[in-house]
Design goal:
With 260 residues, this protein is α/β, with parallel strands linked by helices. It has twelve helices and eight strands. The chain is globular, with a radius of gyration of 20 Å.
């Protein structure tokens, strides 16, 4: 069976979704759906390490690999989410090759890296470490999030770091780093995104992006642009948009009722 590492290494795009709410039932629904992977967001949510571990277990049982978007570059957090069974990590705000190398080191065991050896769920609770070690050497996924102009300036060097599988662009933070938060029409922001797009178009580069709104046309567009690692909406946004639709339907029914 192909691993997530195998799939992201192919020419076909993978499509995942974001976990923001931390509810295990919603995770199970998403994990049994069409997604190639799920990503638990520890950076912009209140999801704890304990909740993260439970989410990973639920997704694993449904046959869906899980990545974790870290809250920062803390080696202790990297170790904990991988020990919980995550297939890999997405590291936020990576601006230099040195930062990327330190993150990869924290995620990999000696002699290649500096990750401490623990016996937890990922290692079959202490009886499967040799098998896990072999699997991690082959299948660990490390994605660097580039969301600052410094990261764009250093993107080639970041991608050249051994163990980095690809990058994930953060357009909003990138625009903010240029002094124009959310203004994607500003010439400085347009120029930076054009530079990123040239990298996306290069053969062999794994580029990722988050289509935040559950918009089919935007999903098709970013895949057409060359992104092969695409997050589509999130548990929160799928739910919120569906509630909006239901609210509109109920509003119409009530309006019709009051007119009779």
């Amino acid at each position: 069976m192909a691993t997530l590492k195998d799939r992201i290494g192919s020419a076909q795009p993978t499509i995942g979704s974001w976990i923001q709410l931390g509810d295990e039932s919603l995770v199970e629904i998403l994990a049994t759906g069409p997604f190639d992977w799920l990503c638990v967001d520890l950076e912009h949510t209140t999801i704890s390490i304990d909740q993260c571990g439970k989410i990973i277990r639920v997704a694993d049982l449904a046959g869906c690999p899980t990545l974790v978007r870290l809250s920062g570059h803390d080696p202790s957090e990297i170790k904990k989410v991988l020990d919980a069974g995550a297939a890999g990590i997405i590291a936020p705000m990576v601006n230099t090759a040195q930062e990327a190398a330190a993150i990869v080191s924290a995620a990999t065991y000696p002699p290649r890296g500096t990750r401490g050896v623990g016996l937890a769920r990922a290692q079959d609770y202490g009886i499967g470490f040799p098998k896990y070690l072999d699997r991690m050497e082959r299948d660990l996924v490390c994605i660097m999030q580039v969301e600052h102009i410094d990261g764009v300036n250093n993107l080639d060097d970041i991608l050249a770091v051994s163990g980095v599988d690809g990058f994930f662009i953060g357009p909003y933070d990138l625009s903010a780093s240029l002094g124009h938060p959310g203004n994607f029409e500003h010439p400085d922001v347009v120029s930076a995104l054009e530079r990123v797009q040239r990298t996306v178009a290069r053969p062999g580069v794994l580029a990722g992006i988050h289509v935040v709104e559950p918009d089919d046309s935007k999903l098709r567009r970013v895949i057409s642009d060359g992104y092969r690692f695409v997050a589509f909406a999130s548990d929160m946004l799928f739910f919120a948009h569906r509630i909006d639709e239901v609210s509109a339907t109920i509003g119409k029914i009530r309006k019709q009722g009051s007119a009779t």
